[in-house]
Amino acid sequence: MIGAIVYELRALNTDSLPLYHGQQMHGLCFKILKDYSPVMADYIHNQMLIKPFTAAELAFYGKISATNNRLYIKEGQLLRWRVTALSDEVLQAFLSLQPGYKIYLGNLQLDVERVYADPELCEYSGVVEPTEMMAECFSCALPSSITMDFQSATTFRSGKNDFPWPLPEYVFGSLADKWAALRMPGDISRTLVAEAASAILPLSWQGKSCWIKLSPQRSARCFVGRFTYGVNNLSDTYKGILAVLAAYAEFAGVGRWTSHGLGQVRIIDKN
Fold this sequence. Notes:
Layout: E1 2-11, E2 15-18, H1 22-36, H2 38-47, E3 53-55, E4 59-60, E5 65-67, E6 70-73, E7 78-85, H3 88-95, E8 102-105, E9 108-116, E10 126-128, H4 130-139, E11 145-154, E12 156-158, E13 161-163, H5 168-181, H6 190-197, E14 201-215, E15 218-230, H7 236-252, E16 265-269
Antiparallel strand pairs: 1-7, 1-9, 1-10, 2-6, 3-7, 4-7, 5-6, 8-9, 11-15, 11-16, 12-13, 14-15
Helix pairs in contact: 1-2, 4-7, 5-6, 5-7
């Protein structure tokens, strides 16, 4: 099983976080994993190049004060945090958090008030069996286009440089890499996806580039925006594979540093 969990949090004190605080959320994920299974957390941290989870940055209700690259959070403020698990054991670790669990981000203290894993209760949450996701994608009407909304800063790697542009071979190639590395069902390889990507046409886009600082030692050139890929020139088999990867993108994220808040994607129109 894979899944997306949304935690509803309430601030217990007033404090601030870096404007880009994905590194803090990444560390929090590892604390949750370590509390659940130290052996699993150690293996993921030290042995797995592609991490079997993603972590979004905090989402806020209403306006939030931001000054000097800091977000100022007031006591009593309600927030949401979305994580995804790309393996069953990680999913169980994230689901082990219950209301009343205390989260500490530096001096900021947060209380877990609700845990959502049902799309009928909270959008973009839920659990699914990958084989069922594949079956559904191939049984539905195959898409003529796929629209991706890159909701958080996203980037890829080209040689030693950041590549802040969603070329089809980079977008779907990164998803194929994750699919294979995390042992999802079916044979979806980067080579196979590269063949399909060569026939994908960009239909429309709106977006912008951005520069983010993940930590004092780590920064990246990225982009955000909405891009539509035309897939009418592909065979039905390739259309089905891309539909599967598009569905997977909402769980796996796209590009680099998805466990640090980057590459958060929503699929707007699968048809």
